Amino acid sequence: MSYLGDLAEDALLYFCFTTRTTTGVPTALLGTPALAVYIDDSITQSTVGITLTVSLDGVVGLNNVKIDTSADAFYAVGGDYSVVVTAGTVGGVSVVGEVVGTFSIENRFDVVGSVTGAVGSVTGAVGSVTGAVGSVGGNVDGSVGSLGAQAKLDVNAEVDAALDTAIPLTPTTDSVNQRLVAIDDLTQASGGGDLAAIAADVVNLDGDAMRGTDAAALASVCTEARLAELDAANLPAVTDDILIDTAEIGTAGAGLTGLGGMSATMKAQVNTEVDSALDTAIPALPTADSINERVKAVDVLTEAAGGGDLAAILADTNELQGDWVNAGRLDTILDTVAADVVGLNGAAMRGTDGAYTGTPPTVVEIADQVWDEAAADHVAAGSFGTQCGTDIDAIAIDVAGLDGDAMRGTDSAALASVCTEVRLAELDAANLPSTTDSILVDTAVIGAAGAGLTDLGGMSTTMKAQVNTEAVDALATDTYAQLGQGAPPATLSIADMLRYIFKAWRNKTTQTATQYSLYNDDAATVDQKATFGDDGVTATRGEIATGP
Questions:
Q1: Are residues 481 and 416 in the same domain?
Q2: Which of 260, 329, 490, 494 qualifies as a cystine partner to 323, CB 3.0-4.6 A?
Q3: Number of folded domains in the chain?
C-alpha cells in the first residue's frame, strides 16, 4: 500500500500495483476482480469512476488503476480515501480486503496560503504555494492524518520567518523567491514596467473613448459607413470581380457543379493506383468477402487441385458434342428407340411374341393356382408331383397302425417319455464307459454352479489378454457424457468422480466475491455452484450444490 498524494478537487488519479503469490512471484489478478473506494473511517464506498486494467501491457501481475474523482460527489474536498480490492483471487487465494493505495483530496494544510501585501495580491503569480512547498502528504504518510494544533503553530512560525528573510540576489530557479523577484522587477522602472509612468499616461482618459492620432474617437466596429470613407485607390481594383467570382462558389462549394470531371493528371494518378492494385500479389489469406478472396476462389476452381479442372471438363463436354452429331452414339440410340416404339400408337405394351403383358398375378393367386391343380394332371414319371404322391402314400402306410398309441421301439416296446434311473439300470454294463465312476468323482469337485472351483491357478494368457483388451477399450475408446445439473452425492463411483473432475477442469467457471459457478457445456447454464466468503482472514468455499 502507498500514499498517492493530496489531489485537487475533480482530479484524475493514475497508479499501478502488483499482485503476488505468497512466494513473491508476480501473478495475475483473477476471479472477476473489482475495486472500491472507502472514505475516512466510514463503511460508505463507491465504485463510480474506477477503471481497473489487469496485467497491463501483457505484464502478468501488473495492474493499472484510473480514478476520475469528478465522476461522483462521493469524492469530496477534505476526505481521506482508501482503494480496496472487493473481488479477486491471486494464485487461487482470495485477496478481498487488500488495500492497494490511499489518497486525499485537498486535505493537507496550505503552508503559505495566498500572499497578499507589499506587492499587491500575488495570487495570480504564486497562488497558494502548495506547488512549491506542496502538501506534506509526500513526507507524512496517510496514516498520520491531519497535523495537531501545536504542529500547525510550529509550521506557521517557520513560514513567517521564511517570509521575513531577505531574498537572495540569485534565487533558486523556479523557486517562490525567483518568482517574487520577477514581479518586483516588473513594478520598477528598471524592469520596464514603471507602473507610475503607466498611471501618468492614462490619467487623462477618465473613461473617455480612445482616439486616433487626429484626436478623432475610434469606432468600436468598422462599419459600412467607415469603409465607404476609404479612398477607392486604397482598395484592389478587382474587388468587384472577386465578389462576382466567389459568389459562384456558393456555400460549402455548392455552386461548383461544372468542374468538367477529373483533370488529366488526376485520371493518370487514379489509373496508376488501379494498375498497381491489380498487379499486386493476392495474399495467402485474403480479407473475407473481398475481391481478392473471390478471385482466389475462382482461380482455385480452375485448377486440378481445386476440383474444377476446366481442361478435363472441356474434354468431357467435347465428347458429348461428338455423341450428339448425326450418326453419333446418342443419335444412334435414339434412332433405335424410335424404331422400337413406332408401332405402339398408344396400345398396351406386349412381349416379343406379341403376348399381353399387363398386370401380373399376385403370389397368392399363383399359390392358389398351384395347389388347386388336379393330381391326375401330374403323373409323368420323375416329376415332382409324382414323387410327392409316392412319398405321402408310404408315410400313410407307416403310421396307419398307430391310431394314437405310444411310439414303440424296434422290439415293439413302448418308448418312455423320460429315460429314468430304472431304464438306465436296465442297460448292460458293457455299454457304459469303464471310467464312469471316475468321471462322477471328478465332476463332483466342481460343485453347484462351479462353487468348488476355488484354485484355478489364475487366468490363462489368453484370458489375461482379453481382460486387458476390454479394460483398454473402456479407458481409451468408450466415451462418457458429462454429468448434468445437480448436487454431487457424498458417495459415488470412480467413473462419476472422474467425470466431475474433468467437467470442472474443462468447462467455464466464474468466481465472484460470493459464489463459485460451474457451467454446462453450453457455457450459459449453471450446473453446480458453491457459496464463497471471506472474513478478511480465511477465504471459504461452501459445499457444491445444484445450479442454477
A1: no
A2: 329
A3: 4
Is residue 416 one of the residues assigned to a domain? yes
Full pLDDT tens readout for the chain, 548 residues: 689 999 999 999 999 999 999 999 999 999 999 999 999 999 999 999 999 999 999 999 999 999 999 999 999 999 999 999 999 999 999 999 999 999 999 998 554 443 333 333 333 333 333 333 333 333 333 334 445 666 667 777 787 777 788 888 888 988 888 777 777 776 666 665 666 666 666 666 665 655 666 666 655 556 666 666 655 555 555 567 777 777 777 787 777 676 666 778 888 887 888 888 888 998 989 999 888 888 887 777 677 666 666 667 767 777 777 776 787 877 888 888 877 777 666 665 566 666 666 778 898 989 898 888 888 888 888 888 888 888 888 887 877 766 666 666 667 666 666 667 766 666 655 556 666 777 778 788 888 877 887 777 778 899 889 999 998 988 889 999 999 999 999 999 999 999 999 999 999 999 999 999 999 999 999 999 999 999 999 999 999 999 99
- Tell me if the pTM is above 0.70: no
**304, 328, 358 — which closes off a domain?**
358
DSSP for 297-363, please give it.
HHHHHTSGGGT--HHHHHHHHHHHHHHHSTTSHHHHHHHHHHHHHTTTTTPPPB-TT--B--SPPPH
Q: How far apart are CA 147 and CA 6, in angstroms?
A: 14
Q: How far apart are CA 33 and CA 513, in angstroms?
A: 9
Q: Is residue 109 part of a domain?
A: yes
In a domain, residue 540? The reply is: yes
Q: Grid coordinates standing for 63?
A: 495492474
Same domain (yes/no): 396, 513:
no
Please name which of 547, 539, 519, 520 lies closest in space to residue 530, comparing C-alpha atoms.
547
The whole domain housing 477 covers: 459-548
